[in-house]
Backbone:
């Protein structure tokens, strides 16, 4: 069975259809402008925000929080998942709580995190770190545990140390699921960050949208939606390209 190739031109069909439906709905007055701003108004808001530098400042603030929180959450998650995979005792003590807490959406922890950390930058970084921690930890755990016992037997025959087994066997073998977990963690972190900024933030994409809502500027709110979707797509697509290159380099 042949595998369908991704065609960027075909992927634009859905986007153009959505834009056409949006434009038609606003022209026909299906929804009032207070509910659905027309595309041209959103475009003007984008040009104005980009020209003044305000939009760029909000984007940089959000991406800065995302980078810091994601790096922290991914590193701790990778270490935690590795510890669970290598130690049955550690897994026995932590797996119950781990699997119970990971079922709870990150947004549900926001009120408690606000009480603990306040509404400053630490709170938002912790939200991002929590959102990225669980996908990465689970991916590392399942990736390491999924290694065939035959490979582990070979490592035992050659009396490889733990560091050598990790570097030469475990991490390369577990790389594909780990990369998938990192990619999923990045997507979840981005969604959680925007939700946190919508509630409490001095700057950021979410805060820009909330200010637009308070001022009844639906063009700014919809512009924020478009920007969030675009950035999320670029992050995911960029990580997908990196994942493909790394896995191809291993198989070559």
Residues:
């Amino acid at each position: 069975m042949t595998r369908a190739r991704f065609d960027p031109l075909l992927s634009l069909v859905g986007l153009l259809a959505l834009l056409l439906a949006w434009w038609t709905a606003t022209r026909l007055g299906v929804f009032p402008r207070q509910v659905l701003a027309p595309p041209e108004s959103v475009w003007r808001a984008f040009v104005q925000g980009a020209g003044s530098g305000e939009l760029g400042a909000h984007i940089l603030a959000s991406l800065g929080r995302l980078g810091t929180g994601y790096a922290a959450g991914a590193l701790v998650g990778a270490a935690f998942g590795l510890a669970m995979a290598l130690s049955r005792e550690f897994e026995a003590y932590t797996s119950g709580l781990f699997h119970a807490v990971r079922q709870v959406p990150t947004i549900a922890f926001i009120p408690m995190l606000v009480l603990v950390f306040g509404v400053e930058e630490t709170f938002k970084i912790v939200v991002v770190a929590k959102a990225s921690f669980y996908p990465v930890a689970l991916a590392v755990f399942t990736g390491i545990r999924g290694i065939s016992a035959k490979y582990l037997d070979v490592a035992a025959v050659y009396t490889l140390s733990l560091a050598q087994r990790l570097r030469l066997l475990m991490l390369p073998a577990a790389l594909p699921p780990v990369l998938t977990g990192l990619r999923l963690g990045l997507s979840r972190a981005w969604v959680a960050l925007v939700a946190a900024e919508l509630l409490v933030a001095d700057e950021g994409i979410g805060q820009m949208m909330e200010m637009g809502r308070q001022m009844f500027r639906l063009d700014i709110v919809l512009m924020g939606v478009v920007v969030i979707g675009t950035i999320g797509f670029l992050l995911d697509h960029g990580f997908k390209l990196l994942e493909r290159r790394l896995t191809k380099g291993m198989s070559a």
In short: The longest helix spans residues 162-199. The CA atoms of residues 55 and 153 lie 56 Å apart.
